[in-house]
Model the fold of this input.
Amino acid sequence: MRPIATRYARSGDVHIAYQVVGQGPIDLVFVPGFISNLDLHWEDEGYSRLLHRLSSFSRLILFDKRGTGLSDRVDAHALPSLETRMDDVRAVMDAVGSSRAAILGASEGAPMAILFAATYPERTRSLVLYGGYAQFDKWVMGRERLDAFIEAAATSWGTGATLANFAPGRVDDSRFANWWARFERLSASPTAAAALARMNADIDVRGVLASIRAPTLVIHRRNDARVNPDASRYLAQKIPGARLAEITGRDHPIWTGDVNRVADLVEEFLTGTHAAPDTERVLAALLVTRISDTARLGDRMWAERSLRFHETWRLLVGRHGGRAADQHGEMLVSRFDGPARAVRCAAALREAAQDIGIASAQGVHVGEVEMRGPPSGLAIRVTAQIADHVGRGGILASRLVADLAAGSGLRFIDAGRLSLDDLDEPLALVEATSEQHLEPACRSRAIAVEPSALTVRENEVVALIADGKSNAAIAAELSLSEHTVKRHVANILLKLDLPSRAAAAAFAARQTGPDGP
Done:
């Protein structure tokens, strides 16, 4: 991606760094939270995706508040008031030639956006508040917790230690944790971070809420780890005509969790239309494999066995038609175009781990992922949490996997439900067991199957299966989606009482004979 140009606006004696992205008909000013760094935002997949989505329908105006990121540093012992920082928004708008804009305030940026909307109603087209609040002490943290946060920041700022306060669901994501540590270091110094926290503790804009006249959307995650959801409920009650949208999730930053849902809400609110389908995202089956050393092998032997399994993992994933998509230490992520392949690969990996002498636990789920790059977002987080829930040698999958794998010959048994922060309802789980390779012994006679049991389209599909074509190739030849082809294959196997695609191919070959029908 071409680097985004960073420029500076003059606000009094201070230079405010800003960027402009997109050419949409609406000017949208993004007021960031506690800390920010314009350049670093683009390095995180979630943050980058959010900004790309917002800039797809707007001229997105980004800036670092004074004292943070790329903007001028200020005296940490004499930080500016909220009013002064709010006026920085006006200075940036003037610099980019924006006379009127929608204002998006996230977290600590929400009170700043609220004050701007009340002070400059003629320059505020509409107001969007994400994870915001009107008073810090009441809805974020009291003085004792604040003192503990500041004391910890003084000794551990820049290490990523604050991640647990903002996004506890990402603490075990080593790549994100490393990025967060850099985000701390490059956004503010330890002294400035402590001073900013103290300044935020004095925020109270309750008195101006009733004077806001701009159309307002309030967004909050139901289980927000940092800001009590009641904060946004209060905003929605006190701002005239405000609309409240509560979404799933626990992690607080606007660029974590389901950023597509956040962007969809903002786009629909500002434009009045739904987001266009994202052709860069596809439905995929994800497999997360975790390996561990439960036999206390010692560093050298474990390293050797781990390396051997990693090599075997890549081989087996390819053999099952998948792709080794990502790895973080001993967590291996694989991607497949169908859930049955993912489950069969998981079974093969379990056997390989046993042969090598290490422990494995595997989770399978189906969800939307980017066509390019390693899987990220809600689908991979859910899959990883399923894998975390698995006992040694187990294979757990979401109920959706079993539904989509109907007719594949795989067998699943109910495994209860798992509560996840990102989902409204507990996720139904199933345990993958062995495949049905043989007819049940209780059957007294074979069941006759006829091609007439299939529809015309299903007969076309089964003939192409016999030709050795993949779902993708069948979809292209019949001008169907891959998802529709998968449904046809599942129906064929169910109607003909067959365990696999191979059996369907053999059935089709028997019907046509060596010289055709």
DSSP finds 19 helices and 15 strands in the chain. Residues 299-319 form the longest helix (21 residues). The radius of gyration is 27 Å.
